[in-house]
Amino acid sequence: MPIHVLPEEIVSQIAAGEVVERPSSVVKELVENSIDAGAREIRVEARAGGKRYVRVSDDGCGIPAAEVELAFRRHSTSKLTSAEDLAHITTLGFRGEALASIAAVSRVTCETRAADEPVGTLLRLEGGQVVMRRESGRPPGTSVIVEDLFFNLPARRKFLRADRTEQGHIDAWLTRYALAYPELRFTLVQDGKEVFRSPGNGRLRDVLIAVYGLEVGAAALEIVPPPEAAEEGIQVYGFVSPPSLHRANRGYITIFVNGRWIQDALLSYAIVQAYHTLLPAGRYPLAVVMVRLPPEEVDVNVHPAKSEVRFRDGDMVFRAVQKAVRRTLSEQPAHALPHPHLARPVPPSREQDEARETRRERLAALSTEQMTLDLPPRSLEVRKRLPPLRVVGQVSATYIVAEGEAGMYLIDQHAAHERVLFEQLLAERKESRVASQVLLEPRLVQLSPEAASIVSKYTDLLERLGFLVEPFGGATLLVRALPAIVAQVDPLQVIEDVAAALSTENTPMPLPLEDAVLRHVCKRAAIKAGQVLTYAEMEQLVRALEQCVNPHTCPHGRPTMILVSMEQLTREFGR
Ligand code: ADP
Ligand code: MG
Predict the structure, then answer these.
(1) Which of 92, 136, 380, 465 is positioned for an S-S bond with 120, CB 3.0–4.6 A?
(2) CA-CA-CA-CA dihedral for 223, 227, 233, 238, to nearest 10
(3) pTM, rounded to two decimals
(4) For a pocket test of ligand 1, which of 26, 31, 33, 67 has the largest count of ligand atoms closer than 8 A to its C-beta?
(5) Residue 370: pLDDT above 80?
(6) Residue 448: which residues within 8 A CB-CB, separation 6 or more?
(7) 101 C-alpha vs ligand 2 centroid, how far in Å?
(8) 291 CB under 6 A from ligand 1?
(9) Which whole number is the average pLDDT over 55-80?
(10) What are the φ and ψ backbone dihedral angles of 393, each rounded to 5 degrees?
(11) Cα–Cα distance, 69 to 563 (Å, whole number)
């Protein structure tokens, strides 16, 4: 094919691909325009996850009648006039690409009226071409309707996910902007139902409550800006969770730079680092951190969707964020800070005693017959099975010492119990009868928008595993039932685990999702290291382990036991 210049239509579709990835990108760009237009009230409506319909309306400055068509042309913006301006951008938009890109791949209706003009304009475009224009009698402000996204790009349309997933992305964007702009009132309506509203009273804590619920909102610590910060020209403010409040992943850390949501692994690390030794391993804080610095200190023109930025002095920003968070944590009254988590056995409390009681019942219920039902013929597996073991005792409230013909066994009680529970659940699932426990009171749990959307997407799969979970609007889920083995655990923890397990779909080598969920459930339900066990409990656990098909590893592949052979003992003692 000879070299030729691409037709304008194709050029604009290619350009659109960089800005408009999915319905939530439309929401993000339109909301940014509304914020730039000085709106106080921004309302977003979506249908079918935004695939069919998105409407963003605001009470901002509006577009003058003479400029409406121009707004939809590529590289047309009112926010930038010279290359110099690029160095100190104070608006969210500046590339002049969003409206043109959105219009190129959908059917757009824009109704707008500039505050100082007597009438407004209604403009309709299809695939970027104006198909209608008339006057409109609307009040000042703008509303943009985007219908049938990618109607002219079937290949892109195919990549859109289920409604719930797309809704989740829209939720995520809207809550981010609500957090970044507490003085604006945001409303989100999905399929006719209002799922989120921020109060718009300027108080970030109130937005936190709207997004994450009262528990988080009330406990969050306000970041106290250190006095020297102002001099350096960098301000850090917002909220972080106290060390007693944590989550299973970094998804609850939200960072804004000059009012722009950004993804920045280093800054997120700076925040996590500030909690060093304060959180249990593998747990992360919640944080909403706003960084303000002179516009010339940041290059925002790095990424088409503008979700990455480059700092002139990245180290300075890193230090400022870390210092601000550390200081906030250290200024808490001492009793609010837990002691650093040490892997030391703790004496069992009454709750633990009770939990142990139910555990004992569980172990007892695990009859030999039930366990062997689904096992492959003995001859195949006989060598991997454990010989009968005699329990000797417990070491460090973590390991069980046992003896067998071959020598001495040191068994990791947590890993071993995980294995036992896992095989029990596999057997139950095979028979489609995973034991489920309906909660006495259904429980509302508040997740990050991402976590909530992924859990909502898999409610059917979860039902097969003994869960009954329903989306409850926004990032809230209603938990009605849990697998019986985790019925005693805090539903929030269990559902967070599930979300973590389900997001393994994004890892390069995904496990079957059901297995991933079961593994997490077993991990949560299993006896922990540091729990003192009675002799009878150890016996039950070891008996159950003897029945396992794969007794030597936990479901995550770590060893459940170490064997010190008789020969080794003889040799070591020089007998
Ligand atoms: P950018 O935001 O980068 O300038 P856009 O394509 O998003 O580019 O918008 C083009 C122009 O249209 C903006 O510069 C602004 O002047 C105008 N505009 C878009 N949306 C609105 C709105 N909601 N209210 C007022 N003006 C708007
Ligand atoms: Mg814009």
Answers:
(1) 136
(2) 10
(3) 0.62
(4) 33
(5) no
(6) 172, 247, 251, 252, 475
(7) 10
(8) no
(9) 94
(10) 170, -170
(11) 77
Ordered alpha helix ranges (H), 233-298: 265-274
Q: Residue 108 phi/psi, 5° resolution? A: -115, 135
pLDDT at 36: 95
Torsion of CA 403, 407, 413, 414, to 10 degrees: -160
Token reading at 400: 């069980």
In angstroms, the first-to-last Cα distance of the chain is 84
- Would you state the pLDDT for residue 371? 31
Stronger pLDDT, 97 or 84, i.e. the higher one: 97
Return d(Cα 426, Cα 550) in angstroms, integer: 12
Point out the ligand nearest to the CA of residue 75. 1
The 10s digit of each residue's pLDDT in 217-240 is: 888 999 977 666 555 688 999 999
Distance CA 189, CA 402 (A): 60
Ligand 1 centroid vs 89 CA: distance in angstroms?
15
Q: Whose CA is nearest to atom 2 of ligand 1?
A: 93
What's the pLDDT score for residue 79?
Answer: 86
Q: Ligand 2 center to residue 144 CA distance, Å? A: 12
Top mutation candidate among 77, 89, 105 for ligand 1, by most atoms within 8 Å of CB: 77
User: Residue with the nearest Cα to atom 8 of ligand 1?
Assistant: 96
Beta strands in 105-213 (DSSP E): 107-113, 120-126, 129-136, 141-147, 185-190, 193-197
Percent of the chain with pLDDT over 70: 88
Nearest CA-CA partner of 337 in 250, 409, 271, 276? 276
The amino acid sitting at 162 is: A
Ligand 1 atom nearest the C-alpha of 29 is: 7
What average pLDDT does range 436-445 have in this prediction? Answer: 90
pLDDT value at residue 84:
79
Rounded Cα distance, 114 and 208, in Å: 33
Residue partners of 100: CB distance under 8 A and separation at least 6: 12, 15, 16, 72, 73, 74, 75, 76, 128
